[in-house]
Design brief:
Blueprint lengths: L8 H7 L2 H7 L19 E5 L5 E4 L3 E2 L7 E2 L8 E6 L6 E6 L5 E6 L9 E4 L4 E5 L2
Antiparallel strand pairs: 1-2, 1-9, 3-4, 4-8, 5-6, 6-7, 7-8
């Protein structure tokens, strides 16, 4: 299990762009079809933009047509946390970075087989590390 990172709100504001802060720390979302990783086809790993925890591999990325980068599974289920989100009158499963608690997006049960999952993740919560 990763060592937890805890920073003050001011420290997070210094570390992140205002847009990253809004998504990762305030549970915001980017507009659909605007994220920088939506169309990314390069091989590599997707890390947390807040703490660089390894989250997703390019091999699990797929085009869901929803407007956000989508993945069938994380690199390790202990790298993310899932929690119930009842905001906006809906019941969803929120996905958080296990290491820093940053909001990544949500997971849904309408993905491709074999997992059947769609991890719908904000590009602003990610940093891409190209495979060398």
């Amino acid at each position: 299990m990763n060592k937890k990172i805890k920073l003050s709100e001011n420290d997070w504001k210094k570390k992140l762009t205002p847009e990253e802060f809004h998504v990762l720390r305030e549970k915001g979302t980017e507009k659909p079809f605007t994220g920088k990783y939506l169309e990314n086809k390069e091989k590599g790993k997707y890390l947390c933009a807040g703490c660089e925890n390894e989250l997703f591999d390019s091999d699990s990325k797929f085009d869901s047509g929803t407007g956000w980068p989508s993945f069938t599974h994380p690199v390790g289920y202990d790298n993310v946390e899932e929690t119930e989100d009842i905001s906006y009158g809906m019941v969803r499963t929120e996905v958080l970075c296990e290491k820093c608690g940053g909001h990544l997006g949500h997971v849904f049960d309408d993905g491709p087989k074999p997992s059947g999952k769609r991890y719908c993740i904000n590009s602003l919560s990610l940093k891409f590390q190209e495979e060398k």
